[in-house]
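Is ribose-5-phosphate placement plausible here? Inputs below.
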Amino acid sequence: MLTLQSSFCRFNLVGRSRSKLEKYFSFQDMSLETAKKLAATSAVDDNVKSGFAVGIGSGSTVVYAVQRLAELIEAKQLENIKCVPSSFQSLQLIRKHHLRLTDLEETPDLDVAIDGADEVDAVLTCIKGGGGCLTQEKIVAASAKNFVVIADYSKRSECLGETWKKGIPVEVIPMAYVPVTKKIEHLLGVKPVLRQAVAKAGPVVTDNGNFILDCPFVPGKLLDTYATNISIKMIPGVVETGLFVRMAQKAYFGLADGSTKSLESSEL
Ligand SMILES: O=C[C@H](O)[C@H](O)[C@H](O)COP(=O)(O)O
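Reply from A.M.:
I modeled the complex. Tokens:
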């Protein structure tokens, strides 16, 4: 059961939050990849049991979680695991590691979903969608009893927007991207940017055939994540936002010193 968390940041001074964070995160030379692997491995070890239906997120950190699942299954420490993907990438990961594939039609109630994030704040609100996946991820996370976030130490912050500077990703129906852009501009006072593809001419097209608008954070203003998420979602043409508010029960961070820090929403 989630406790009611504030949808505002608990701290509004970056300097103050940084000194608090340094208790947990000493920025040494631990590679981000090693930190991702630490977080993913601990999350799987602590949260997946035999017989579980597991939602598999998307992105580079989740690769290590799927690797760990495969290792434990191979070692017969886990049995009868079913996996539901949240993107084409995670579908391929599940297949590559020969895990049992299912979907929400066959398995609508998941025991746990494990996913990465672009930023995680002090009350475990996340920004997701930096890699273009957010709608299916949110559906999969919302279908799970426990949503567990895994990340390296660079993703942790007190307030969203401290470390992730690209704004809030919003998936939109292509024919609506201009009206949605205008409405978000009116709502937030900042102009969303249509995300452009890197190895393709034109905009990024999501797994659902939609576009992504990146909505910049309003400079100097605390983000009310709960209200902002709802306001953006109410705009016709918006499919989903990358704000995951009051969804994560736990987060695991791989730290710079080679350890892992886990946080639970019930303790915050
Ligand atoms: O769109 C991508 C997803 O939301 C990812 O989970 C998020 O971007 C984090 O990805 P990574 O683990 O690669 O940092």
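Short version: The two ends are 13 Å apart (CA to CA).
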